[in-house]
Description:
The protein is an alpha+beta fold. Helix content is 17%, strand content 22%. It starts with a strand and ends in a 59-residue tail after the last helix.
Amino acid sequence: MSVKLRFVRIGKKNRPAYRLCAIESRRARDGAYLENIGYYDPYVSDDKKKVRINKERAEHWLRVGARPSLAVLHFFKQEKISGLIRPKPKRKRRKKAAPAAAQPAGAAPAKKPKPPKKPKPPKVQAPVESSAAPPPNA
């Protein structure tokens, strides 16, 4: 099961505080967590004391594959926690096809030309019955 780094709400009614935890992704918001990594208290006036993150444990969880939520990612960037950006794997590039002018004179072209389309036969209109013809005798 995948592990997420996200906030768990603690505190009183109308005065929330949050615990930064490593938790299994399918658990409830306030469910059992694997490890407590830090705290966030939005009501503290000092900006340096609002967020407390154990940098070493956060980097450990990122190394083993835990995914931070968007809110946690924002705080990790502020705290300059390494391991957030994973290097993209190198893409294998296709070789470009050689232009027709660069091919040797005796070589066959890379693509076969399409055969010409067959002409469509003209549409034949059905004979129109005229109202001037005499009705059949019975």
